[in-house]
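Example 3.2
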Amino acid sequence: MTMPIDRSRLVFPALGGLYETFAPFSYAFMRFAAGAILVPHGVQKLIYGTAANTAKGLAAKGFPFPLELAHVVGFVELFVAAALAIGLFTRVSAAILCVQMAVITIVFTGPNGYFWAQQGYEFSLLWLLLFVAILFGGGGRYSVDRLLPKEF
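Structure, written as tokens:
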């Protein structure tokens, strides 16, 4: 549901029509961007073979079966993120991506502190919170989920 734009509160009231036109698409755009931006990372791991580099990082942190886990990470970043982008199984996809971002935030970037300039966790935390918001929001009006009889 989109709230009407109060043009009297806008610094540039002439933009009110533009805001009203595109406001219904804003959540779908956010969901699409959140998923689509991860897809190239999955392509890189699964198609261009950088999963071995990911496996080295996982092994260094003590994760078991690092190469297999690196391929799971690639699968999540390619297929689960693509599903999120189009709004297919949105809540499940967002939950899976929340787990991945929580691990990245806590294990990989957390020890470096908050600031991204020091490889800190602020950016991965932003992604985690975005996926949490999508988890609660579901697929939304413009999603493949809307075509399914039940929402996952």
